Known about the structure:
By secondary structure, the chain is an all-alpha fold. The chain has helices at 2-13, 16-37, 44-55, 68-116, 123-130, 143-170.
Amino acid sequence: MKKLKVLWQVIKQTKADEIILSYLIFVFIDALVIFLADPAIKTYGNAVWYCCVVIFTVGFGDLVATVVLSKIATIILMIYSVIVVAIVTGVIVNFYSQLIRIRQENTMEAFVYKLENLPSLSKEELKELSVVGGDDNGGNVSPYSIKTSLITLTVITISITSTFSVGEACS
């Protein structure tokens, strides 16, 4: 349930809800146009069903547009559907990408803060920094953990150094 709330907040913040609402209104108007224009589609419910079949690219074949106006309305509906799906998908993927980036930045900031304040850290915090993935060796630090920690430290140092170098070059 929490994930659905987050998703709904993303949709509201990016105004994708307005895109979705206008799309749904368009679908029902398109169904009305098809119903009024095409004698092969006898009821408005059938027109809505036909639009759903077109949107989801199912193509049952039980209803077929026979008039040029309803075929044009169908083509517009197909194109609009692809555009709306692409926009909504892009909004959601972009949001989650930003969320992941923010989490990574926060994690990196916390790690750098601990490195800067190394003398004031407790033994447990020092162990946490030196052992990647927790201490599973009964207090012994594995060579793999040390190597991984050193690689992580090197990458962070290079990142920080290059950030400052770029910042100084730009100013």
